[in-house]
Fold these 2 entries.
Entry 1:
Amino acid sequence: MKRDEIKGRSKRVKRLLILSMSIAFIGFGAWFSTTNAATFLKGYLLFKTTQSDAKAATELVMADEKEQAAETEPTESEKKEVVYLEQPEQGENIGELIIPKLDATLPIIHGTDEEELEKGVGHFAESVLPGMEDNSVLSGHRDTVFRRLGEVGKGDLLIVETVAGKFTYKVRQVRIVDEDDRTVIVPKPKATLTVSTCYPFDFVGYAPERYILVADLVSSE
């Protein structure tokens, strides 16, 4: 009889304990949801979710940039070192600039003084020769050799033929800059052709700006 009473009493104590704990948890939950701790936890969870989304977006952008870099990665023929046996003399004809869009073939003269520009497209002597790694800069008058250069734009081809080979460039960017803008002649990390002329094309007198084509080497022979 005593054993049954003890068991019954034990069961009642357990039920009472479980009931008390349930009430306590409910009360704690109600209190917690109204405190700064709940706000902090919600904010933390939101931060972690946002951080995860931002990381995923960053990885996606980086992957896209790598893919674009791979698409513009020079081929083996482009990586081949271009060798000129000797540096040309001022005023010397060093090759031809072919502009398929205009069906034009223009002589390239080493130097950009007025005497050279009267003969054709001038090669800025302080820049590398066409086909070489870095920035090769060509200039010409808008009212002579580059009369129609404004028709050439992004995606068009520029071909340079010299004693070192045939180099095909694709226009990547069109810029209009002030005449004193020195970024036109800055070094480049890969073989680049920069073509410059005065702008606007219909300007009467000395034009204050420059029309710039920036082209990347896409093949060499």
Entry 2:
Amino acid sequence: MSDINFTAQAINAALLNNWKEAVKLNKDLLDKNPQDTEALNRLAYAHLQLGKLKEAKRFYKKVISIDNYNQIAKKNLLRLSSFKKANIELKTVSPLHPSFFLEEPGKTKTISLINIAPFSRLSQVTIGTEVFLHPKKHTVEIREKDKTYLGALPDDISYRLIRCLKAGNIYSVFIKNISKNQLTIFVKEISRGFKFRNQPSFIPQLSDYQASLHKEIISDEEDNDKEEAFS
């Protein structure tokens, strides 16, 4: 089997949260090319998802030894250094098919949160985790299932969604990307209340037609400085 096929299978295993298979496939790639930093990053990430933090750190450090400017490895080593050994809880999430993140104009939106929680908190959140809208008087907060605060929607989007939520609209929200200074969510309209049955939740833009997937899981080819809980 060609390296391209192995790479595609390794990526697919990660998308399906099949981390043990991802480990195996990336190790097969590294047997052929031990200097493959993309495979090393994917391997480190797979170990991270399996809770093997020492192994994850070891492979990220190996990436740095090969490429001192590799931002993916640097970013994740920084995240790992923020964990407290006595207080680490890796959260497993149900695999999301890549098509879930396809943009539907007016019905979905990728949003960068403001007033985000400290990185020590964000670093314990996994991409693909479902989170929830908590409307306040003038803003909408994003919180985990246990009500842990993660961030808030920008004011203009908060204003619009508060009205939609009061009218009975229902949304699903998932973590899409995580980095030290940014947390991005994907909001999807599930249903509309009667009052706004003919109004889109979001004003469609050209960019809404573009599909966007978590880049680190898919290719690890370059760092766009956005991210995975774990990434």
